[in-house]
């Protein structure tokens, strides 16, 4: 493990307490393998990807609940072909008792496949509360979005946060992952200054191969300069290596100030490695006394 700075245990514990994980609809078998290493009641987000049908998404949410965790199904606004499709999905979740927590995101398609142009349109549809949703997660982008300018991106965040509050939902923000703590902390202060006071889950990559991490980073517009890579703990000249977020988490814990940054937790993007990520978190907390 790379050398890391000393962290005040109370701060580190607060950050890694109640962490959340992410999986796809195809990862049910991997979750079953990892279940013993994940604390009961952990929130597990279930992505809404192309190539997955309604049955797979509902089955994944049921599996998360059956295994003792809290399912957080994603709703990808631009992937919904119709209002009826959203009603069918929410109705299925409600029937299974897995609709209380959802994460609403615009989604990858450049053009909507149906009536919902963005996540805000889903929030304003009136369908979420009708189907038993109580808690809504929304996305945040500390390093910006490759297809959306900063002005509209901030407006989208503040509008979604306002909609969650106006409809008396609880909610949180999950950020895109990154390798550099500086933009994350700056973004947190800017969000609080704009009146966004929802708890924030900082997106962190689980341990993975450097080449794979860089591929995801390129896709999502995450900075990967040589200096950023060194700060995170890997080299751009060694793409065959693997790396975990050790330095990132220690730096975040050392510099996190609740008075300036608000309520903050950690969300792990597992990239399919649920057991590997769960085992890494356990070792990291033991080694670091976090």
Question: Could you characterize what this model shows?
Answer:
The chain has 290 residues and is of the alpha/beta class. It is 44% helix and 17% strand. Strands 1-2-3-4-5-6-7-10 form an eight-stranded parallel β-barrel. Strand 5, helix 7 and strand 6 form a beta-alpha-beta unit. The chain is globular. It starts with 8 loop residues before the first helix and ends with a helix.
Topology:
Elements: H1 9-16, E1 20-23, H2 28-34, E2 43-46, H3 54-66, E3 70-76, H4 83-96, E4 101-105, H5 119-123, H6 127-130, E5 135-140, H7 150-166, E6 170-175, H8 181-193, E7 200-205, E8 208-209, H9 210-220, H10 226-232, E9 242-243, H11 246-255, H12 258-261, E10 264-269, H13 274-288
Helix pairs in contact: 2-13, 3-4
What labels describe this entry?
10 strands, alpha/beta, 13 helices, eight-stranded parallel beta barrel, two-stranded antiparallel ribbon, disordered N terminus
Looking at how many chains there are and whether they match, the oligomeric state comes to single chain
Largest sheet: 8 strands, parallel, barrel
Query: How many distinct beta strands?
Result: 10
Low-confidence stretches: 1-11
Structural class: alpha/beta
Strand content: 15-25%
What helical percentage do the residues reach? 40-55%
Rg: 18 Å
The average pLDDT value, as a whole number, equals 88
Distance between the termini: 15 Å
Q: Label the overall shape.
A: globular
Q: Enumerate the strands of the largest sheet in spatial order, edge to edge or round the barrel.
A: 1-2-3-4-5-6-7-10
Order of helices and strands: HEHEHEHEHHEHEHEEHHEHHEH
Number of helices: 13
